[in-house]
Amino acid sequence: MTTQIREPVRSLAHPARARVWAMSKRNMLVQSRNPGHWFLLLVLPLVDGLLFGSIGVAFGEGEAPVRLLVTGVMLFHLIWQITLAGSLGLLEEVWSRNLMNLIATPLTEREFLGALGLVGLLRTMVSVSVIALVGLGFYSVAPDSAGWVLVPGAAILLLFGWAITLFVIGLTLQYGDSAEVFSWGTLVLIMPLSGVFYPVDSLPAILQPIAEVIPLTRVFAAVQEGLDTGAIAWDQLAIAAVGTLIALALATWFVDHQMSRFRRLGWITRFT
Fold it and tell me: Which domain holds residue 259?
């Protein structure tokens, strides 16, 4: 009689990976039972796609304005959804008074952030797919109409969205659920200055220097050039990448600093 040696359970062999996956599944289950999350995930992208696509048809000449508006709103949802998933993921723990329970588990801060990031990527895929289907089905705008510039551009947008997420998480650790407004308000402030739907020189002169500093401005300028000529504006993308890495480094430092203060000053008492 031979004895079979069973392979170790994966969750035991890779405990960190198992914790990240378990936390991701928990977040997805919590969000799936909340009608508000379904609205943000499916209805809002649908409305945005129809709104900006119809504006392009009504006030533009030819296909170029429609392609610009639909592609712009599709790319902006890359940032929007990953930021919402991260910031609202932490706020869900705050609202349910579950933060203390998480601290008592082996789950580390980085694993928790990794779970939020994974959920954010999944939400982004769904949301962008909705807008892409709206653009293709109703306005004959192909999702890849801007060309290969979308690949590096999307990567930069996701990284910048994650930087915003870390910034909002840091504020939430200090101010609790009163920081909810920053989960969506931060991007509302940035969007008009980023040239998502129009060139930066369309802004008032006093705001143009501010817009030039925002990395998103360079990404959307590169996308607009891709829509117009099919070329990849590597100079714009390089500036955007450097600015995004700086923003990501500052956001990482900020959230680490806030977590240190969270432990040292006993901010957990605000969430119980």
Answer: 14-271
